[in-house]
Amino acid sequence: MAVRPWLDRCPTFTRRRSVAKLETVIKEAIARGARRQVRVVVTPLRREVVRLRKKVTDLQATVTTLRWSANGWKRLMEAAPAIPQVSEADAKAARLSPRLIASLRRRLGLSQVALARLVGVSAPAVAHWEAGASTPTGQNRVNVVALRRVGKREVKELLARRVKETVSRKGRTRKRPARRPRKGLKR
């Protein structure tokens, strides 16, 4: 401790210490000023970033809602029949003979299976209609009468849509795991 008072009196040591102290004081003042300047610039930017994040969140919610709505409309449009709607009264008043059903099928270039798929019945039902063994009734009659107003192009589109629907339904069914072959029993 005796050395210390002597060092304090030494002019060279005191100058070095005061210069070092002055240097740290200046550095701290510059850092404070810089922080203040940065804060002045950054604070409005932070507020803007927060505002923009909220805006992006709102827009994402809006986009999600619009996607749901678009998917709903898409499903509705795909589910909507391409066959023109016919009233029950028009369907009852329409004449449907076996020859008319066969000529309709030939005009549209359809097989009995394809016509059955369009109307929503089995192929043997169409064969029975054409043979005169039975006649379409109810919604089937409405569908057959509506097919009179459709051309080949619309029928192809409708059939393609129906095939897609059946393929997508088949894809939804869960397949059973393959059975393991039994090991042979020793006798």
Quick summary:
The chain has 187 residues and is mainly α. It contains eight helices and no strands. It folds into two domains: 9-77; 88-162, 434 Repressor (Amino-terminal Domain), CATH 1.10.260.40.
Question: Features of this protein?
Answer:
single chain; 187 residues; mainly alpha; 434 Repressor (Amino-terminal Domain); 2 domains; 8 helices; 75% helix; elongated
What does this structure look like?
The protein is mainly alpha-helical and 187 residues long. The protein has two domains: 9-77; 88-162, 434 Repressor (Amino-terminal Domain) (Orthogonal Bundle), CATH 1.10.260.40. The chain has eight helices and no strands. The radius of gyration is 42 Å and the shape is elongated. The protein starts with a helix and ends in a 15-residue tail after the last helix.
- Name of the CATH superfamily of the largest domain: lambda repressor-like DNA-binding domains
Domain unit count? 2
SSE order = HHHHHHHH
The geometry reads as: elongated
How much helical structure, as a percent, in the residues? over 70%
Cα-atom Rg, whole angstroms?
A: 42 Å
Class inferred from helices and paired strands: mainly alpha
Provide a count of the helices.
8
CATH names the topology of the largest domain as 434 Repressor (Amino-terminal Domain)
* End-to-end CA span: 106 Å
CATH class of the largest domain: Mainly Alpha
CATH architecture of the largest domain: Orthogonal Bundle
Number of strands: 0
- Main pleated-sheet profile: none
The portion of residues forming beta strands comes to under 5%
The residue ranges in which pLDDT falls below 50 over 5 or more consecutive positions are: none
Query: What's the rounded overall pLDDT mean?
Result: 81
